Amino acid sequence: MKKWNKRLAVWLAVLMMGSSIVLSGCSKTDTDNTQNTEEKEQSTEGTTEAVTLSEESKKAVDEKLKKYQSELVATIGDRELYMDEMLFYIIYYEAQGDYEDYYNQVYNGIDDYFWDMTDEDGVTMREKLKQYALDAAICNVIYAEQARKLGYSLTEEEIAANEATVDTIISGYTEEQIVQGGIAREALLKSYETLTLSAKYSGQVESEILAGIDEEEIKAGIDKADYEEYQTEYLFLSTTAYDENMKAIDLSEEELAEKYAIMEEAYKMIESGMDFDEVQAELSKKADVKYSERSFNPSDTMYEDAYVDAAESLADGEYSQIVKSNYGYYIVKMIDKASDESYEQAITDAVSAKVDEIYNENYEKLLEDANVVINHEVWDLVEMGTFTLNEYEQ
Question: In the predicted model, is pLDDT for residue 154 greater than 50?
């Protein structure tokens, strides 16, 4: 069994925790192929100290850096993007791809090598993440140049934070990987300057868009009745059982009576003033009584009629008698019969969608004006997934 390289996980977590800066607004509609940040950060145990390079390795990295600095990837208006600045984006997406490969093998049982898997359009993950890297680099360069035009620069605190982040990234590599990728501090700092300036401009644009949005107009287009919601909590004891072939079987009258008696005991506890979760904790010693909360629109059809009917008969703070459903016994309590949570979330989502729409329109105009030209003689030679040899430990 291959295992995840902990050294790589160290700086992968740093990249993921800083992803709001890394792709600052350059991924408003992107969907990258990564697991959530929380899962990734769980792989950061066993951090390691920085690698001390031999003189021979330092020389090799310096030579590679000079080579990268001469390899033009794209022209973006008057700005030139060289391979040294692309380095960050390559290792960023390589790390995500390598994690996906590991995750799919270990947790999903997928043996096909991730990088060569294809999507519904026949595009490999290798090609897709390579395009993500280029798109993100171009976007950040465009935004950083806009920031410079507005007079933005990095503060001493931002420079220090970037230096600390870059040092942590480099510390996550082995000497072999540093040499293989030509991972130079100078190059990563250059990228982080662009990233930080890009984030400044992105933040200003988003603030201006939000200031110009009429939230009342958006609210007028949302019917509150469509988002009527009940917030409830409940205790539940299942009356469903299964045989050795996982086929549902009916309980005997005696078994049903025993379960009902347990719920009667629960009801008495509630009448005495105990909270639902306290009752569940007490009864869990003798039966598998479940406690949970449930929010739903009364017109939804996904929940049992018996549950919905019981909830509809309750006022805030009231609880039902024992309710028999097809699957077990409930006791339902109404927390809030006029919850605005779904309605407010719908407004938030609509505002966010409008911001994204305007934001993306603005970026498309900037992108068109930038007249981006890709140097395929250089970029086509990059093979994502092999650049820094991010392999697993055997």
Answer: yes
For residue 393, being part of any structural domain is answered with: no
pLDDT tens digits for range 344-367: 888 999 999 999 999 999 999 999
Structure tokens at 334: 């109404």
Q: 231 pairs with which residues across the strands?
A: 295, 336
How many Å from the N-terminal Cα to the C-terminal Cα in the chain? 8
Residues 208 and 229 placed together within one structural domain of the fold: no
CB-based burial label for 145 (10 Å; 0-12, 13-18, 19+): buried
Q: What is the CATH number of the domain that holds 277?
A: 3.10.50.40
Q: Which parts of the chain fold into alpha helices (H)?
A: 6-17, 19-22, 37-41, 55-69, 83-107, 125-149, 156-171, 175-181, 185-212, 215-220, 253-271, 276-283, 305-312, 341-370, 376-379
The whole domain housing 80 covers 6-212+352-379
Query: Are 208 and 228 found together in one domain?
Result: no
Residues 321 and 363 in one domain: no
* Residue % of the chain over a pLDDT of 90: 57
* 154: CB partners within 8 A, 6+ apart: 162, 193, 196, 197
Same domain as 239, residue 93: no
Compute the distance between CA of residue 269 and CA of residue 150 in angstroms, rounded to an integer.
66
CA-to-CA distance for 252 and 354, rounded, in angstroms? 57
